[in-house]
Specification:
The chain has about 325 residues and is an alpha+beta fold. Helices cover about 20% and strands about 25% of the residues. The structure holds heme C (5 copies). One heme C binds near residues 68 and 244.
Length: about 325
């Protein structure tokens, strides 16, 4: 990125650079000021987080590009993968964007409406007009996410509709509560040691299925007796059905019964895929094989993407009650 190189050359820290920038951002028709990189010249930390997210890669994503190449009308795929300002069409599919498509879902896509920059606090700055907007609160941000995550299209499933139908919004759950981790960083333009001036915000590095630990939180496991049958209960810990992308992703769950000495006695398995998703508030029951001397169950959950094993996201031993 050219602006990173430029900042490194003058060798200053992020906070001082931001304050030192004397070229206020203006939304113009010139392509340069409509890019994430231009926001990133002041919002250095947020930009770095975002750059590491699936949103930043949404257009250049090789899986997306491969599908685009096979489409008779590829422009139909652009609105959510390289959108214009979502706030201007909240709750509806955004318009496709003309410039900087390689930046995918960039800052302007979520933060700009008309010529103003909307955010959670409305902090005043000479850099741009800032508007405090409920669309950036824990609950209000649902509308922002829903604009793109509410439709069944190609392999994409309407996760936000599943979340809403399960009544999770009423239970105070939120998309950003799970997917954007709480973080503390200096506001843009603070001239002092960033550590002493941090403010609570949320990381733009989205947590997603690529993070094994986060992914494991989709499955809440326990063993119970049902009559004289031991069952492994797999409850959904995500805010929607799992997995999200039909055909592309699946989970293979393997359960092995072991005795006190750790000897394997019996096993069984379950595939959670687009044919048999774990629904938003579902508890799936997997009857375990009979094995009288079993004292515990080792559960492994493997994450598969396009026929390739990505990771083992769970490797856990559960005591049999
Ligand atoms: C209504 C908005 C919308 C439109 C239009 C749209 N997508 Fe997407 N797309 C999404 C969302 C949201 C995701 C992320 C879904 C998820 O992970 O559950 C996604 C993810 C994908 C992925 C997965 C990328 C990966 O590597 O994980 C592919 C492939 C894809 N879309 C292809 C397409 C194609 C092809 C079209 C045009 C036919 C299209 N999309 C149009 C919203 C959209
Ligand atoms: C998918 C939508 C989305 C995109 C893309 C996005 N943001 Fe945000 N941004 C949010 C949400 C939601 C919040 C509110 C999070 C919170 O509670 O702090 C936020 C908060 C912020 C804040 C203020 C609070 C804080 O955390 O310090 C700044 C500054 C910000 N974003 C800048 C940016 C910049 C710069 C980019 C591009 C590099 C960007 N955002 C891209 C959704 C987005
Ligand atoms: C010249 C520096 C500069 C540029 C360029 C810039 N900003 Fe800012 N921005 C600031 C400062 C300073 C603040 C106030 C401190 C803070 O909130 O980080 C701010 C605040 C924000 C906020 C927080 C608003 C709130 O609710 O408090 C958001 C969101 C934001 N900017 C987004 C953007 C986006 C998107 C772009 C690019 C289109 C951008 N900024 C370009 C300096 C800049
Ligand atoms: C403009 C459309 C759009 C908006 C608005 C949007 N998303 Fe996305 N989101 C996408 C697309 C497209 C992808 C797929 C990117 C890819 O993998 O190619 C995606 C991917 C994701 C992923 C998967 C991350 C991963 O690592 O695979 C998560 C989680 C996510 N979005 C959460 C959110 C949340 C939370 C919000 C609201 C703050 C939001 N999105 C707003 C379009 C959008
Ligand atoms: C209780 C926490 C929680 C809430 C609330 C939540 N999610 Fe998720 N989400 C997860 C977990 C865990 C995963 C990983 C599971 C998986 O791999 O399918 C995930 C996966 C995803 C993915 C990737 C799906 C795929 O197959 O590529 C997207 C996109 C996503 N969530 C969007 C959203 C949106 C939009 C909302 C709000 C409507 C939301 N999530 C609410 C926990 C949550």
């Amino acid at each position: 990125m050219y602006w990173q190189a430029a900042l490194l050359m003058i060798g200053c820290t992020s906070a001082i650079c931001a304050a030192g920038s004397n070229a206020p951002y203006q939304r113009g028709d010139d392509a340069a000021s409509n890019s994430a990189a231009s926001c990133g010249s002041c919002h250095i930390d947020v930009h770095a987080e975002w750059q590491d997210s699936a949103h930043a890669r949404a257009f250049v994503d090789p899986v997306f590009q491969a599908q685009l190449a096979t489409r008779a009308e590829p422009e139909h795929c652009v609105p959510c993968h390289a959108p214009g300002p979502v706030l201007e069409r909240l709750g509806q599919m955004p318009h496709a964007r003309k410039d900087h498509r390689e930046e995918g879902i960039h800052c302007i896509a979520c933060h700009q409406s008309d010529t103003d920059i909307h955010g959670p606090n409305g902090s005043a700055t000479s850099a741009h007009t800032t508007v405090k907007d409920a669309a950036f609160t824990r609950r209000g941000s649902f509308g922002l996410c829903r604009s793109c995550h509410d439709m069944k299209i190609a392999d994409v499933l309407p996760l936000s509709r599943e979340f809403e139908k399960a009544g999770l919004l009423e239970q105070d759950a939120s998309c950003i509560g799970c997917h954007m981790e709480t973080t503390y960083r200096a506001p843009a333009g603070i001239r002092v040691d960033p550590a002493s001036q941090t403010r609570r915000g949320r990381s733009h590095r989205l947590l997603g299925p690529g993070d094994a630990e986060f992914c494991s939180s989709a499955f809440l496991l326990r063993v119970e007796w049902r009559g004289n049958q031991r069952v492994l209960i797999i409850a959904n810990g995500a805010g929607h059905g799992v997995p999200g992308l039909a055909r592309l992703r699946s989970f293979l769950l393997l359960a092995t019964l072991v005795d006190r000495a750790g000897r394997k006695l019996a096993d069984c398995s379950l595939t959670i895929s687009s044919d048999d998703r774990l629904l938003a508030t579902e508890e799936r029951h997997l009857p375990l094989p009979m094995a009288n001397s079993a004292v515990s169950v080792i559960v492994r959950v493997e994450h598969w993407f396009l026929g390739k094993k990505l990771a083992t996201v769970i490797d856990q031993t559960l005591e049999i009650p």
